[in-house]
Predict the structure.
Amino acid sequence: MNTGSSRKLPQVPFNLTDYGRVYDTFTWAETEKELDWVRGEPVNIAYTCVDRHVRAGKGEQTALLWDDGSSRKSYTFNDLNDLTNRFANGLKKLGVRRGERVVLFLPSSPEFQISLLGVVKAGAIAVPLHSKIMDDAVQEFLLDSEPVAVITTATLRPRINHSNMAFIRRLIVVDGDGDDDWQTVINNSSAGPATEWMQREDPMLLLYTSGSTGASKGVVHVHEGALQCYQTGRWVLDMKEKDVFWCNADPGWITAISYGVWAPLLNGATTLIYSGPFNAEQWYDVLNRNSVAVWYTTPTFLRALMAGGRAVARKHTFNALRYIFSVGEPLNPIVSRWSQNAFNRPVHDSWWMTETGAQMIANFPCLPLKPGSMGKPVPGVYATVVDEKGGELPPLEMGQLAIRAGWPAMMRDIWKDRDKYNSYFRQPPWYLTGDLAYRDRDGYFWFQGRADDMIKTGGERVGPFVIESKLVEHPAVAEAGVIGKPDSMRGEIIKAFLVLERPYVWSEELCLEIRHFIKTRLAHHLVPDEIEVCSQLPRTRSGKLMRWVLKSRELGLPVSDSDKWD
Ligand code: AMP
C-alpha cells in the first residue's frame, strides 16, 4: 500500500506566477494574439479548438481520450479535425444553416464532443440537453429552441416526441436505424474544410438552466467566449499542452462544454471523457490509468468519494495529478481537508455560473489557498459585492456578488426573453449574480448563499417553480411549494410541501406515485427527496408563495406572527 509520503506532487512551474501584476495590467487583447484572432476578422471557436492545432503541426497530439470503464480509445487532433469536418459538412448537406439550432441530447461520449464541434463549425447554434431529463422536459426545450435537427442515441430517442414539431427536419441517431444514422452522416461526407466564418458576437450555444421563478431559461453564448475559456484553462486550471484533463460534468451543464470541450482543446490539452459508472474504486482507477493531470469536479462527487473512505484513495498513487478543482456549490473546508489527506492535494474551488460562460473567481495554483473561500477574480474580470442600490460594499460586508459587465464569455441574451436578460443588468455597470458573498481584506471572495429560492442539489441547479408546476399536474395535488433543505452529502435535498385535493388521503402508495410522476416526466434528480403534506401553504395577500417561510420552518428558525401558517 502507498503511504501519503510516497505520493509526491509533480513539480511543474505554474502558467501564471505573478497574479497581482497580471491582474493589474492584463487586457484580453493579449489572449486574442495567443489565439491568432485579429480584430474585425471572422472566427469560429470550433476551428480555434481543432484546426488551428493541426495547422500548427500538432495534429498527432491526442485531443480526446475515451474511457468507458472497460475499454479506452484515443483521437488525435487530426482525427478530430477529420471527424468534425465530416460532421459539419454532413449537417450542411442535410440542410442545416448558419444560426439554426441543433439539439444535442447525448450522454458524455466522443459523439457528443464531435457533434458539438461539428454543429458549431457549421455555424449553427448547439443546444445541449441534460442526458437525465425525461419526456416532458425534453418537449419543453424542443418547443422553445425550435431546432431544425436533433442528435441523440438509440437509448434516449424514445424520450423525444416531435410529432407536433414540423420545424425538426432531421433526427440523427447514434447507433440508430430508421432516422439519419450518425455514423452514416460522418461516412458519407467530405473531410475537407467545413468552417463557417462567424462574427465574434454570433451565438454558438444555447443552454437551458433553472431560475427561481418561471420556466427554465435559454442562456445564449457567442464565439467570443473562446478567449476566456482558453485563458482560464491556462491560468486557473494550469493546463499544459498534452496534459490529460478530466471534467466529469454531464453534457447538459455548461461546465461540460466550457471546460470539457473548449478550454482543454483551446489549450492543446487532452480532454478525457469517462462514460462508465460512479464508484470510488473505479474513479480512482480512471484518474490513474489515464494519467489525469488536472481534474475538475464538484463537491458532491468529492463528498461521495469521501464516504467511500480514505483507505480506498490511499491505495492509488495519482502520480500525474497536479490539481483538483471544484465548482457548482460551496466546497466545505472538511472536503478540502479530506482531499489533502486522501490525495495529498487540496481542492481548489472556483466560482462561475451558466450565465457567466467561464470561470470568474478561483483559487489560483500560484496563490495561497484559503479553504472555504472561492478565491480571487480572474484577470480581466472585476468582481465586487454590492448593496441593494448597487453601491460597492467594503471588505467583510455581505451583499450581492456583482461583476462589471463586459467580460468575453458573458451571456449575450436569454432566448426569446430580452426582459429577463436585462434584469441581470438592472443596476449598471453590474451584472447581478443572485449570490450573496463578502470579500475579505486580501481580496478573496466567500460564498454566503443565494439571494433567491434557487436550489443546488448534488451540483445541479434546480428551480423550485418547475417542480411545483409539475407536481400540481398530478390529480392528487392541489398546491405545491418546493425548497432546498441543507444536506451533508448533496449540499441540499429537495423538499416539497403539498396540499392535497379532496378526497385524496396521504399514503405511502400516493407518495411513491407522485415521486414516480416527477421522475418519468421531468428527471430523476428533480424528484423531491422529502414530501410533507399540509392543509395550506404560506402565501402573500396577492397569493405569491412564500418559500422563505417554508424554509424557516424547516430549519426551525423564527417566523413572524404575520407569516405563521398551517
Ligand atoms: P450553474 O449555472 O448551474 O453553474 O449554477 C450557478 C450557481 O451555482 C451560482 O450562482 C452559485 O449559486 C452556485 N455556485 C457555483 N460555483 C460555486 C462555488 N464555488 N461556491 C458556491 N456556490 C457556487
